[in-house]
Amino acid sequence: MNTFSNKQVAALPNHLKQYIVEQHYEHYTPVDHAIWRYVMRQNYSYLKDVAFYPYIPGLKKAGLTIEKIPSLQEMNDALGQIGWGAVTVDGFIPPAAFMEFQAYKVLVIAADIRQIDHIEYTPAPDIIHESAGHAPIIGESRYADYLSYFGYIGSKAMYSSKDFELYEAIRHLSILKEMPDADPADIVQAEKDLEFKQQNLGEPSEMALLSRLHWWTVEYGLIGTLEDPKIYGAGLLSSIGESASCMRPDVIKLPYSIDTLNYSYDITKPQPQLFVTPDFETLINVLEEFASTMSFRKGGTHGLMKAIECKNTCTAVFSSGLQVTGTFTDIVLNANDEPVYIKTTGPSALSYNDNQLDSHGKTYHSDGFSSPVGKLKNFDMPLEDFHINDFKNMGIELGEPTVLEFESGIVVEGTLKSVIQEEEKLVLLSFIDCKVYDKNSGKVYFEPFWGVYDMAVGHKIDSVFCGAADKDAFEPIALVSETKTHQIQFDNQTVRLHELYRIVRNVREHKADVALLPSVWDSLKTEHNNDWLCALEILEIFEHTALHPELADDIKLGLKNKAASNPSMTKLINDGFSLIANPVIDLVH
Where are the annotated coiled coils located (predicted)? Predict the structure, then answer.
């Protein structure tokens, strides 16, 4: 399967491609396909009345069918027609990476599928949620615009080390909950760990706040009026339990606005309130309202202070367009609280238009980078707008001693070694035998014996964002979690159960010998008494063919007894009866 035949996927940068895993379609079991079919039939039956209308025709646009788990190739072939793509990944990936995939118009699909015990809802991302939840609405162009724009905004958001710790806790718990042999004590401990991290995040970062907007729209959003909302959020569209319960009056419906930022969420529980947007344009407007408060838009002292608090790799963009990437550790302010000097510590790099400048990567700037910010004293024109001829008129020439004094009082004194200009803007001046100091305080920022001094050019900081400007050059190794999703090893009894499901599927799809089914039912009763889904599929065939009525009655009685004695199965089995009585035709293909 050539995933990269899709144009959107092929255009992904290398640091994102490192998250992609093979789907391994052959690993899906007959039970997995039965789970997909049950959920999709329930969704189709129920959601056709409560989902935002484009959901149903959107299934076909996304390359999905009710009958079987989609292959990534089928999805990419279909999504490619509307300018999107899809990749499979290993469970949860870091929010920043997830957002960036979205910015590139690529859906991130968890390759795994939920266990039958979590058929109504799973906190772990799975192929039902990611493909049947997110993909069908992509065909609505304004929503697709919102999704990709959200990805762009999210890829610029500041996040903290605590955000990543929270992500790891969520990922760990979701993996445990999908492990059939997980120790209950481990799950309890993981839940406590997650709760502790949620309660001790401190002031939420830009990424944490954006995650709330994402949750209450992309995952759990409603559209329309408060009195008659429709579902468009993927978390609801993929949950056969909560898609129904969310419409109850006890789930509060609130108008969607920027105030939604004040509502945190818990992925492990049903949501106590949901937010209704009148249209997708409102989503874009609210996102734009929040984006105007973010560091990548505000820049300046606000952005630099956020970068220092972040303690992660960030990028500051000078007014010349020069991008300085590194871990920001210091900022000098003037009397107006404007930055006049900035400093990074550790590996740093210089870029322009997200492309690293030659010979200015993190190996060369391994110990950090520092530079003044501002205008030269007695000059109204910003330094970045100077031309080489202006330098000559000032008596500044390559290879000659030079003194640059800034309005702040910072002085750069040395021999001009080289000049880098981009698109008629000066972006970098390099000096040898250079001393940098503050003439007012006497503080020295750079000594001649330290080597070459590279000075960024720019009278202000226009933008500050999390991550590197040229991620492929700066971050060759993606921040991929060490915790991997659990690969189930099936025992012999489970393998035999898979074979029973396979036989039933073969009978239904290929009109194989129905006479095989009585023995399957006998095996289910004697060896797999906890099963209900395979029994429902046999009953469906018997009811629709009018064959073996006595066995059909036996199966129905057995399922009713299970529904009565096991509350967790009651709704599932009764909904299954309803599907048999009101069959869903796979209209999407």
Answer: none
- Per-residue confidence of the chain (589 residues) as pLDDT tens digits? 556 689 999 999 988 998 999 998 999 999 999 999 999 898 888 888 888 978 888 888 888 988 999 999 999 999 999 999 999 998 778 888 889 999 999 999 988 898 888 888 776 778 988 888 888 999 899 999 999 999 999 999 998 767 767 767 777 776 676 666 778 888 888 778 877 877 776 678 898 899 899 999 999 999 999 999 999 998 888 887 788 888 889 999 999 999 999 998 877 778 899 999 999 999 999 999 999 999 999 999 999 999 998 888 999 999 999 999 999 999 999 999 999 999 999 999 999 999 999 999 999 999 999 999 999 999 999 999 998 778 888 888 899 999 999 999 999 999 999 999 999 899 999 999 999 999 999 999 999 999 999 999 999 999 999 999 999 999 754 455 555 555 667 889 999 999 999 999 999 988 778 899 999 999 999 999 899 999 999 999 999 888 899 999 999 999 999 999 999 899 999 999 999 998 876 544 4
Any domain includes 479: no
Amino acid 566 reads N
CATH number at residue 31: 1.10.800.10
Say if 236 falls within a structural domain: yes
Count of C-beta atoms within a 10 Å radius of residue 526: 8
Q: Are residues 571 and 447 in the same domain?
A: no
Do 249 and 301 share a structural domain? no
Residue 107 gets which letter from DSSP?
Answer: E
Residues 406 and 544 both lie in one domain: no
Query: Is 219 annotated as a binding-site member?
Result: yes
Rounded to 10 degrees, the C-alpha dihedral 206/209/211/214 comes to -120
Whose CA is closest to 320, among 275, 381, 378?
381
Domain assignment present for residue 182? The answer is no
CA distances from 184 to 191, 346, 487 (A): 11, 43, 18
Pair (363, 449) in one structural domain: yes
Number of domains in the chain: 3
Distance CA 148, CA 521 (A): 49
Domain that holds residue 407: 296-474
Q: Are 568 and 531 in contact (CB under 8 A)?
A: no
- Is 366 found in the same domain as 240? no
Annotated ligand binding at 365? The verdict is: no
33 is in an annotated binding site: no
User: Are residues 73 and 107 both part of a single domain?
Assistant: yes
Residue of 417, 313, 413 whose CA lies nearest to 372: 413
Task: Please tell me the pTM assigned to this model.
Answer: 0.84
Do both 86 and 223 map to the same domain?
Answer: yes
In a domain, 290, yes or no: no
